[in-house]
């Protein structure tokens, strides 16, 4: 009888142990599943973070390139203003280059006061301005021209008048690097050899780089 009781007790204990082991195994399986899901979730998070970091890195590279381009453009400064060193400019034209032989300033060294020719240091949009003061009874037209073929950028003209006449003109043009700009004179009165301009600061030629390519 005692042996039977012991056998029953052992059987019950074994059953409980097996059930407990099954529960532990199920718990461990659930834990493993949770860990795997957590690992997968972390992996997805890492992938998402990597994508965001890559985008930010590309954005930083783009902004750096833009800042560098702006810095390069800001360093391309071209400005000049030229006038005459004498009071009266005589015997102008026809088609003669007007040499403004005094450069008040010449940032970028694009203008040559010895020849009256401006050579664009950089490609871009340029603005040119011309001002003339004619002597009494003198008519003259000045053309701001460029290569090739003396293409006219802008022109200004004063008519024959008993008193002095003032005229100005301004225009914008795109120039390639090395392209030249200068001023040509054309008398409009009946006696061209007598055509004269007032010099010094009363007549001037100027220009600047508005926006480089």
From TrEMBL:
Keywords: Secreted, Signal. It is found in: Secreted. SMART domains: C1Q. Residues 1-21 form the signal peptide. Residues 73-213 form the C1q domain. The keyword Signal applies. SUPFAM superfamilies: TNF-like. InterPro entries: C1q_dom, Cerebellin_Synaptic_Org, Tumour_necrosis_fac-like_dom. The keyword Signal applies. It holds the Pfam family C1q. This is C1q domain-containing protein. It comes from Pomacea canaliculata.
